[in-house]
């Protein structure tokens, strides 16, 4: 058990280590600066003091919630790469209900928004891609990606002179009612009680995936779809359910981002959280606890990169370079197996020679 | 504004063709890749890298053709790494594609800032020439649409025909397709499966790189971060809508190009350009779920294959 846990942590750690070295070489060549100094600036910028850590946590919240959703799909063998669009849909619904409904107390307004945003995300991410997959075999990678683009253009339509545009010339929605805003946890930061929602989501997904029959069946379908069919599971239903749950969490993340941080919708409100969430699920190996660690790491990387840019003049885009490399080095896991085998055979080859002497 | 007058305006059709180039080229590239059984969603990233390398070389040597060459070489190199990871390391191709796209968007933005700073690429960077075609030039309307386009437009037309011929009328093309349909059978027949996958992915990289170079030194003479703005993904949709054939990919790209051109032309009218931009994606989903003829992927597409020997 311990060995298994260590193995699942080791791979991402090796990948992160190699990527940091390659990133360091890029810094050395292009910026002619000490990479260690740059990485220290990055680290302190991400976790160094309460303010910075609060910012990292703020960025981690949407990554955790969306990452959980992507991980559910991954566990069931489905590639939901349209989380960005589902995130938008959740945000659109949350914003609309947030400014349109007036006079509700917060303890009714916020749950109402959460439920509606989750349903909307589930329909967007689950219904079309899930049903298309089950009934026509249309690959979910393409359908979720297409649905994602449709969602993004739809939101631009709503904002740029459309029905959700606020008065004035800037393409943005009105601000949501106070009763729809999540309270701030750390003064002078954007960290909101959305953090509690994220923690709750982790617990719910952990129980759902590892302690319930549905979770067991979802994972069984992902592990071996044919065996699951033989065992009498309704595979089609499970696939649609997995996509729906996946979309529901992305939708929830969009709603939490609106209620906790942005309070209104505008063109560039997401910073690509839906795409980064895929990396989160990947790094986490679909484990809910791993999702938290991976989200904190990736959020720290992007928060810290901005601090590094200010202190060292090294452009913050280096964070993306490192993230890309990390995924690459995780994807080529075969290489580690080959290297390990080479080392093993060398050892066994050496032994008989030693014995003869 | 009279809606009908928009459609009789030759400018709309000329820009439809121009807009289809950075979609059709990577879409055809993706066709090669997927026909060999490798799903390559890194077209987006390869376009971006090539767009940057093209501009950098074009500015440095003051020669757009050298820029184009360097861009294509960069695309081939990146595709080579992709092919190695996909065919030799049996990596998950979707994960791999994501890694390449994130890396590409990071490294191009990073190098752009490191080399050119806030001023951006030099103003006097040469771009690929526009070409006037002697006879067609004189024909009204048709001349306005087909003549005077960037040289890449004409290169694209040649490449479409060559690609279709290569894929469906040559032995190598047949082998490439066999590997994507049934690698076991192909291997039994003596085809080197891994080599064919390398060929498919590298051709894909070269074509995507042409598309990327067109963005930075064909349409413009400058680079900006994220300038591919999702065209690699649209190309993927065009490839599927075009049923994994070069000519089909081009026709589908024309549809997407038309939607883009129309959305620009309609900016003044009451119809939102964002609604029009949505249409090609809706059409792609409809095509995928089988409305208007089913689009079927090569049978072994995206499945890593371990050679038996």
From TrEMBL, chain A:
Which coarse location class describes where this protein primarily resides?
A: membrane
Describe its membrane topology: Multi-pass membrane protein
List residues traversing the bilayer.
6-29, 36-54, 60-83, 104-125, 137-159, 191-209, 239-261, 273-301, 321-339
- Example GO molecular function: transmembrane transporter activity
Is Aminoacyl-tRNA synthetase among the key words of this record?
no
CDD domains under this entry? TM_PBP1_transp_TpRbsC_like
Subcellular localization is given as: Cell membrane
Keywords of this entry: Cell membrane, Membrane, Transmembrane, Transmembrane helix
- GO cellular component terms, A-Z: plasma membrane
Instruction: Enumerate the InterPro entries for this protein.
Output: ABC_transp_permease
List the protein's name: Inner-membrane translocator
* Organism listed in the record: Caldicellulosiruptor kronotskyensis (strain DSM 18902 / VKM B-2412 / 2002)
From TrEMBL, chain B:
Among the Pfam families in the record, one is BPD_transp_2
Where does the protein end up?
A: Cell membrane
Please give, as recorded in its UniProt entry, the membrane topology of this protein: Multi-pass membrane protein
One Gene Ontology term of the molecular function aspect? transmembrane transporter activity
Q: Which UniProt keywords apply?
A: Cell membrane, Membrane, Transmembrane, Transmembrane helix
Q: Which residues cross the membrane?
A: 12-33, 45-62, 68-87, 94-116, 151-169, 198-224, 244-266, 278-297
State the InterPro entries in the record: ABC_transp_permease
Question: What is the protein name for this chain?
Answer: Inner-membrane translocator
Instruction: Name the species this protein comes from.
Output: Caldicellulosiruptor kronotskyensis (strain DSM 18902 / VKM B-2412 / 2002)
